[in-house]
Amino acid sequence: MKQAVSIQKIGKINECLMFIKQNGISGSILEFGVYEGGSLFEIVNFCRLNKMTHYIYGFDSFQGLPHSEGIWSVGEACSSYENTCSELKNKLGTIEDIVLIKGFFKDSLTKELQKIISKAALIHIDSDLYMSAVESLSFCEPLLRENTFVIFDEYVADGEAKAWKEFLSKTGYEAETFSSCNDQSIFKIKKLGTDNKKKLIELYKKESLEAFNSISTEKIIQFVDMIFEAYDKEKTIFVCGNGGNVASALNLVVDLNMHPFTSEDKNVQNVQRNKFKCVNLCCDQATLTGVSNDLGFEFVFSEQLKYQGDSGDILFGMSGSGNSKNILSAFKLAKQKEMKIILVTRNAINKCSEFADLTIALDGMSLFPGQTGNNNNNFHYEDILSKLTHIAVGLLKKRVQDAN
Fold first, then answer.
1. Which of 159, 194, 229 is the last residue of a domain?
2. Which residues, at least 6 apart from 78, have a Cβ–Cβ distance to it below 8 Å?
3. DSSP state of 215
4. What is the pLDDT of residues 199-257, one digit of tens each?
């Protein structure tokens, strides 16, 4: 369990605060991992004694740690919001100059909140877990500036230290070590991040390969075999998705309908077609807007399947979250009609998988800009939709051409 804040660690935090005071550094002070408020009390007390007027924020779930990691167990370091407020009031008298934000970081560290917090003078990360440190640092990225202090209370290799090193590599920020004692490490930002194009491009290439390799070959074979079976039995493959996935659906439909049945140079159709076909449920604007207006957007795909889908047909749903309501509605109807169902998603835990005959889900956590947090791996996910399409189309083409 967490121990009382050591005098040595508090002394180092006070050194940072004194530097901030002496150099007239304004801005916010943020603590991630408040627990019972021991270190937060010391920070607030120092600021009051030295007449520092910085806004002070404390972030904690007040439900303990969200998951187990290393020496830490899920639910550990738990102090209720009410208990922590009571502890701070007993020591400080009033806590009107503290803003406590309640909730797990993935939920509470919002862009809306980020916009109203001023640039940071000091950031104290005492969240213990790697992922919690990643989420804290991601939230703080636009709040950093030269001379911002970043303090880690549990700076261990697979936890906060790993998160910090990955953050610096990703953002291009440079930091100098201000102090280090026991597990506490303090850094001071000395150079603002650059766009760091080369590193980010290499990061994307590396992550993209890892994301695709996280999908087993057996899963891809199962996917291809379902396409083969639909072709052999002259069934229809229906495809649906939202947003950018509509482009992936378009690509899949045109390639499956055309490419396997033409010559290698695509100049002539050299194979007699059977009744196999692929249908895009995202393209008919009149149907989409009509169903949306009359019944609701949740039913734009399921309503089309009611009069088109038959037993043995395939419904291929593309949903990054795996929870899209219109995809889920279509899956439920397809299951009733005894259709085969394929889901490709970037979220292994989702609502649609319950109805899918095959779920292909990405693993891993991205650090590339634009696909972190709740949008994790979205670019890699869309890349993989394209890869799966091309694998299926190429192998079906070989099969069809070899048979003729």
1. 194
2. 62, 63, 64, 65
3. S
4. 788 889 999 999 999 999 999 999 999 999 999 999 999 999 999 999 999 999 999 99
- 337: which 2 tokens? 């009609």
Of 190, 179, 11, 32, give the one whose Cα is nearest residue 100: 32
- DSSP E strands in 222-337: the ranges are 236-241, 277-280, 314-318
Query: CB–CB of 309/334 below 8 Å?
Result: yes
Contacts of 140 (CB under 8 A, 6+ apart): 30, 120, 123, 150
Total domain count, the chain: 2
The domain that holds 57 is classified in CATH as: 3.40.50.150
One domain, residues 283 and 347: yes
**Amino acid (1-letter code) at residue 146:** E
Task: Check whether residue 260 and residue 128 sit in a common domain.
Answer: no
Per the structure, the complete domain to which residue 368 belongs is given by 200-403
DSSP category for residue 351: S
Task: Tell me the pTM.
Answer: 0.60
Separation between Cα atoms, residue 22 and residue 7, nearest integer Å? 22
**Which helix (H) or strand (E) covers residue 262, if one does?**
none
pLDDT tens per residue across span 79-111? 899 999 999 999 999 998 899 999 999 999 998
User: CATH code at 249?
Assistant: 3.40.50.10490
Dihedral class, residue 70 (left if φ above 0, else alpha if ψ from -120 to 50, else beta)? left
Query: For residue 54, is it within any domain?
Result: yes
DSSP state of 134: H
